[in-house]
Specification:
CATH topology: Rossmann fold
Protein name: Transcriptional regulator of ParA family, inhibits the initiation of sporulation
Organism: Syntrophothermus lipocalidus (strain DSM 12680 / TGB-C1)
Shape: globular
Order of helices and strands: HEHHEHHHEEHHEHEHHEEEHHH
Radius of gyration: 20 Å
Largest sheet: 7 strands, mixed
CATH architecture: 3-Layer(aba) Sandwich
CATH superfamily: P-loop containing nucleotide triphosphate hydrolases
Number of domains: 1
Helix content: 40-55%
């Protein structure tokens, strides 16, 4: 069941679709008619479910039934997906490949986002083939299989220092300083992903718990952003500041971009780790969710994700909870809810 839409929300979606058609025209000019929709999952607080949502939106697209893909994507074909781990905590990478395999990757010196950022930040035209950094066939579907059409750009723990590199780095020949902030510092990830956008229909970027340069790069590179939140007062309190800051970024980048930048749209706010009683959120959390709806209207997802041990158990085994749905219990319920969230996401971004 999808969220009910108000007239104001429909108007917002119409305006967003018009802006999206402009942004996607850039991709069509360079890559033909393929559309790549890029989404960042952001919140400056930890533990709100950013990685969980990123991971399950991406893997869920391959696990949708063909008839559901036909209905919501216009084709039964499984879309190509790129998962981008933009966080030094590396949780998305570990979820995809497992902690043991991730340690082996680091020991072998596998190229990561840390290396890409360095090369693209320091060079106008880096001699870098981004495809060489993408890991294919490593995202685990279950204990013995991997996803065929989901790829990964892995993180590195040293990404924690990359924000500092952005802050202190300055190009001696920077020409844009006369007209505004150093815009090249916000465009790095966009330049990285531009090389491979023709390969994918969807990209999902897992962001660090901050609004610093790595997250700003993700927002700049994205068509959409999503905010997961816990249904408690401390988590919900900062949401307005995130929305306001992204709106501010959009204004800055629009002014500095001479009309070439297209605003990144808020898809919505997803309540996570909701506790239920009689199939409804418990009273204290229901009050918070209702308060969010009063403030943000239909920007709050109709569907939410409940708490339970299904997702932690699946992540411990380096597989999405969809793969444990047959075990029943919270895994089955969380699978159902995540599929509803995915369908609602697709409905919200549909043109």
């Amino acid at each position: 069941m999808l969220c009910r839409r108000s007239k104001e929300y429909e108007e917002m979606c119409t305006a967003g679709a018009q802006r999206m058609s402009c942004r996607q025209s850039r991709y069509r000019e360079g890559y033909g008619m393929r559309k790549c929709r890029t989404s960042s999952i952001v919140n400056w607080k930890e533990g709100v479910g950013k990685t969980t949502i990123t991971y399950h939106l991406g893997t869920g697209l391959e696990m949708l039934e063909p008839e559901h893909r036909e209905e919501h994507l216009g084709s039964e074909e499984v879309p190509r997906v790129l998962l981008v781990d933009n966080d030094a905590q590396c949780n998305l990478t570990i979820a995809c490949v497992g902690s043991d395999q991730f340690e082996k990757m680091l020991d072998k010196g596998v190229k990561t986002m840390k290396d890409l950022y360095k090369d693209f930040l320091e060079n106008d035209t880096p001699v870098v083939n981004v495809e060489e950094y993408i890991l294919e066939g490593v995202v685990r579907r279950n204990g013995s299989q991997t996803f065929e059409r989901i790829d990964l750009l892995p993180a590195h723990p040293d990404l924690v220092y990359t924000d500092m590199s952005f802050a202190i780095y300055s190009r001696a020949d920077f020409k844009e300083s006369m007209s505004g902030p150093p815009m090249y510092k916000f465009r790095v990830l966009d330049r990285i992903l531009e090389q491979v956008r023709d390969r994918y229909e969807f990209m999902f970027i897992d962001c660090p718990p901050s609004m610093h340069y790595l997250t700003q790069n993700a927002i700049y590179a994205s068509d959409y952003y999503i905010i997961p939140t816990l249904p408690d007062w401390f988590s919900a309190y900062g949401l307005h500041s995130i929305v306001a800051k992204v709106q501010e970024f959009n204004r800055w980048w629009d002014l500095a971009g001479n009309g070439l930048y297209r605003a990144t749209e808020l898809v919505g706010i997803i309540p996570n780790n909701v506790k239920e009683y009689n199939q409804e959120p418990i009273q204290s959390q229901a009050a918070i969710i209702n308060g969010l709806r009063e403030r943000y209207g239909d920007l709050v997802f109709y569907n939410y994700l409940t708490n339970g041990d299904g997702i932690p158990r699946a992540l411990h085994e380096a597989q999405p909870v969809y793969s444990l749905a047959g075990s029943g219990g919270s895994a089955a319920k969380q699978t159902k809810l995540l599929r509803r969230i995915l369908v609602e996401f697709l409905d919200r971004i549909a043109e």
